[in-house]
Amino acid sequence: MNLEAFSLGTSGMMPLPGRFLTSVLVRRDGDLFLFDSGEGTQVSMKMLNLRWKKISAIFISHMHADHVTGLPGMLMLSSQVDRTEPLYIIGPQKLAEYIESQRRILDMYINYEIKVIPVETGVVFSGDGFSVQAFPLIHTKPCYGYSLVEERRKGEFFPDKAVELGIPKGKLWGRLQGGESITLDDGRVITSDMVMGPSRDGRKISYVTDSLYFENIADYVHDSDILFCEGMFEDALRDTAREKKHMTAKEAAMIARDSYSRKLCLQHYSPRYADKELKILEREAKAVFPDTVLTRDRMVFNIPLKD
C-alpha cells in the first residue's frame, strides 16, 4: 500500500513567489487527505497533477487566514467534478461558521455533501486500516496538530514452515494467514503463530504548526515516520517566537529527536527569510536532529512499509 506526503505550501503569514501558504497533502492508496489549506493550495495540487476529487477529508489546524484562505477555492473546485462521497472537514468550532458564510456570500455552487466536524482530542477520522488523531497545541487561537496512524499489519507468512508442518497448500494457508487455527487430518492443531512472524508496525505522518514549544508534543507525535513541523524562526529570535506563540527550527528538531521520529520536514517559515536565508533554520535544526529536510513547496515524500 502506497503512502506519500506532498508539501503544497511552506510559508507562514503571507505567500511569497514560489512559496505558498502552509498545506500538506497525504495520499494513501489513492485516497487524499489535506492538512490545512493556505493560499496557493490549488495551484500546487495542479502542478503536482493531484486529483482533488479524491480528497476524503480536510483537517484544519486553526482559524488563522494563512491556514484557511485556500479552502473556499478548494470547495468550489470540487464542484467541477462528479462527486458522490461526502467531504469531511475537521477543525475548530469557528470553521463551520466560516464555511457557511463563504458559501452564502460567494453564492457557491456545491453539488456534494459537506460534513463539518468540530475537532476534539483523540481520533477524529478513520478508514480501512488507519485513523487520524488530533492533539491540542498552544497558539493565540485554539489550535490542533494531527497524526495519520496506520494500524499494525499482520506478520510475514513463512511458506517453508507450513511445508515442514505438512500443511497442504491452499485454503488452509489462507486461514492461517488470517489468524485462524486449523486442525489437520492427523489431529494436530496448528496455530497461526507457528507459521507467521510477529505483527509489524504501521506508518505514521504527523503535522504540527503554529504552537509554542512544549514537551508533550513529542508524546503526541512519537515514532512518526515523517514529522511536518513549523520552524518559523531561528534561535536568535526565540523571544519573538514565544511572543507570537510559534516555534524555532531548533525547537522543532528537539521534538523530532525526543519523539524518535525518523524524519523532520521543516515548514511554515517566516517571510522574513529569503530562500538563501532558510539555510539558517536548516543548520540549526540539523545540529539537534540530523535527519532534517528544509521542505520546499511541492516536495514529495514516499513512506515505505516497515518490514
Task: Give a quick precis of the structure.
Its cofactor is Zn(2+). The protein is an alpha/beta fold.
Please tell me about this protein's structure.
This is Ribonuclease Z. Zn(2+) 1 binds at residues 62, 64, 139, 210. One of its GO terms (molecular function) is 3'-tRNA processing endoribonuclease activity. Keywords: Endonuclease, Hydrolase, Metal-binding, Nuclease, tRNA processing, Zinc. Pfam families: Anti-Pycsar_Apyc1. The chain is of the alpha/beta class and 307 residues long. Helices cover 25% and strands 26% of the residues. The protein contains 10 helices and 16 strands. The strands form 3 sheets. A 7-stranded mixed sheet has the order 6-5-4-3-2-1-16. Helix 1 (41-47) links the parallel strand 3 and strand 4. Helix 9 (249-258) runs parallel beside helix 10 (278-288).
Strand order in the largest sheet: 6-5-4-3-2-1-16
Q: What's the tally of helices?
A: 10
Overall pLDDT? 92
Query: Rounded to an integer, what's the Rg over CA atoms?
Result: 22 Å
Shape annotation: globular
**Structural class of the secondary elements?**
alpha/beta
Instruction: Return the string of H and E elements.
Output: EEEHEHHEHEEEEHHEEEHEHHEHEE
**First-last Cα distance:** 13 Å
Low-confidence stretches: none
Instruction: Estimate the strand proportion.
Output: 25-35%
Taking the sheet with the most strands, its summary is: 7 strands, mixed
Q: Would you count the extended β strands for me?
A: 16
Fraction of helical residues = 10-25%
Family: Belongs to the RNase Z family.
Keywords: Endonuclease, Hydrolase, Metal-binding, Nuclease, tRNA processing, Zinc
Catalytic activity: Endonucleolytic cleavage of RNA, removing extra 3' nucleotides from tRNA precursor, generating 3' termini of tRNAs. A 3'-hydroxy group is left at the tRNA terminus and a 5'-phosphoryl group is left at the trailer molecule
Binding site for Zn(2+) 1: 62, 64, 139, 210
